[in-house]
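Recall the central idea of this unit: under ordinary conditions, the amino acid sequence of a chain determines the structure it adopts. In this exercise we apply that idea directly, starting from the sequence alone.
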Amino acid sequence: MFKKALVITLALMLVSGAAFAQKPVIVIATDATWPPMEYVNADKQIVGYAVDYMKAAAELGGYTIVLKNVAWDGIFAGLGTGKYDAICSSVSITDARKKVMDFSTPYFKVRQALIVQKSLNVKSLEEMKKKKVGSQISTTGTFTVKATPGVISKTYDEVGLAIEDLFNGRIDGVVCDDPVAANYAMANEKYKEALKIAAVIESNEVEYYGVAVKRGNKKILDLINKGIKAVKDKKIDLELQKKWIGQ
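Accordingly, the structure predicted from this sequence is:
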């Protein structure tokens, strides 16, 4: 009887394992330096709004994800050479990027925000002429700063380094995505008493985050879009926004 039960148990395990093995695996790169969207917590785990979103999308979409922490300066090159299947890292969908990669349906609407020290009385980026404004290199924050006449652009490998320089008075402002700005200027214990959001920068073009995949990789794109649709249909995105970003 024991042997028979053991054989049945092993058979069930093999069937279960085979079913799991057949589940598609998508390796997703993220530059985990943008709280609350994606960042490394005190326990060295990659967490955040987008991380929970992608996990929920995978569960509902019928695939498995593996997250890979990748520095921003090489993240797009790695996608092109096949080091991973996709990028979910607060990547704004732009016309320039769409020429070299494909994007999922949007999963988050975003605007650029200007952070300054509380002592500085400005209400727009245009008022920062002849002042140094930091941003993360090759982001829409940097594109926004460089497109504003008279503002001195200083780029950083990570937005957190720009925030630290602002806190210490080495630069005059930082431009980054609004949920990230809110996290640093309103929620971070170290910075919230010294920094403020001076302006949310309005644009004629609506900015959205999307998951980037290599051009032509329709199989991966379809799976990700299936998961994103399921998350939206079940309104899980609203729950995640409340959890990570607030109202």
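The first helix runs from residue 2 to 21.
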